[in-house]
Structure formats: structure tokens, C-alpha cells
Amino acid sequence: MTDPKGVTALNLPAVDPLPEQTQKYFDICQDKLGMIPNVLQAHAFDIDKLNAFTGLYNNLMLAHSGLSKLEREMIAVVVSSVNKCFYCLTAHGAAVRELSGDPVLGEMMVMNYRVADLTPRQRAMLEFAEKITISSHTITESDRQALRDVGLEDRDIWDIANVAGFFNMTNRVASAVDMRPNAEYHAQHR
């Protein structure tokens, strides 16, 4: 495992050795991604927090949902764009490029999703995620109805809110500790 020094501005050394299950998870990441994402390495000083983070992330981003994986990554990027989170814009911008097969879409999501050629469903979903990020206290039933009007169901609205909420939290943590994205993300899927 890479020394987490340099992953964040904090000096929080990883548990050494990692528990067997954690090491297996990191090995899977290395095999599938060609790297261990720095966000995981940053959490490796506290295995309980790492497990909580990965459990929620995997449930929100990878489990069954009415939202596609691409749509969930698009939400992550729009939220991260509003919050100007360098780590998540880099990592999840790469995911949008990969899942869409469109490097231009990935860049549009990072810079300004409004210039992208989106479906009405995607546009409404991203506007809602942006509103959650900027002014969640102003959301009313008309905002939820606008999502239903483009075919999203209440469970989808729940998922949009949770993905947006998760990335609002992680963006703030990543920015506060100056978390750095893996260098590999910058060149991926361009």
C-alpha cells in the first residue's frame, strides 16, 4: 500500500498491517482499477470509519437503483462542481468519461452541466442535486413533482437526495484535509 503521507495534509498513518478483509478490499481495487483510490488510503487510519465510508459509498453508488451508475456519477460531479472539490471532480469526472464513453461529457459535467446534451430526466435530476447542494432548505413539493413529471419515482428521488448528500459530506471532508486524487485519474478515459 502507498504511504498515505501526501494523500492529505494530515499525518494519519494507516493501520499496519491492515486487517485481512481490508487488505482484500484494497487488493480488489488494485486489480480492478489499477490503483487504490486515495480516499480509501486516507481513511485507512481508522478501519471502522473506512468500513462505514465504503459501505455507504458502495450502497449508494453500486447497489441496485432506478438511477444508472452513470446518472449517480453525474450527480457526484455536479455536486462536486458546486463545491469545487478537486478530489471528487477528478475521480468522478473520470468515472463519467468512462461510463458514458464520452470525454467531452465528462468535462461538461465538471465545468458546467448546463451545456451538456442531457435528457429531460437527467437535467431535472441534476438541477435537483444542485439545489440540494446550494439551498436544500428551499426544496418544496414542486421540486419533487418536477422529478416525477420526467419519470422519476419516489425511490429515485430518495436516491438522488442520498447521493447528493453523501457527496456534499465527502466534498467538505476532502477539501478540509486537502485530499489529493490519484494521478492516474487525470489521464483516464480521454
Can you tell me about this structure?
- The protein is an all-alpha fold.
- The chain has two domains: 20-62, Up-down Bundle (Single alpha-helices involved in coiled-coils or other helix-helix interfaces), CATH 1.20.5.810; 69-187, AhpD-like, CATH 1.20.1290.
- The chain has ten helices and no strands.
- Helix 4 packs parallel to helix 7, helix 5 runs antiparallel to helix 6 and helix 7 (120-135) packs across helix 9 (154-176).
- The longest helix has 23 residues, at 154-176.
- It is globular and about 50 Å long.
- The two termini are 27 Å apart.
- The model has no long low-confidence stretch (mean pLDDT 94).
Strand content: under 5%
On the 0-100 scale, what is the average pLDDT?
A: 94
Structural class: mainly alpha
Please indicate the count of domains. 2
Please identify the top-level CATH class of the largest domain: Mainly Alpha
What is the CATH topology of the largest domain? AhpD-like
The radius of gyration is 17 Å
The number of helical runs is: 10
* SSE order, one letter for each helix or strand: HHHHHHHHHH
Shape: globular
How many beta strands in the DSSP annotation? 0
Assign the CATH superfamily of the largest domain.
AhpD-like
Which range best describes the helical content: under 10%, 10-25%, 25-40%, 40-55%, 55-70% or over 70%? 55-70%
CATH hierarchy: architecture of the largest domain = Up-down Bundle
- N- to C-terminal distance: 27 Å
- The poorly predicted ranges are none
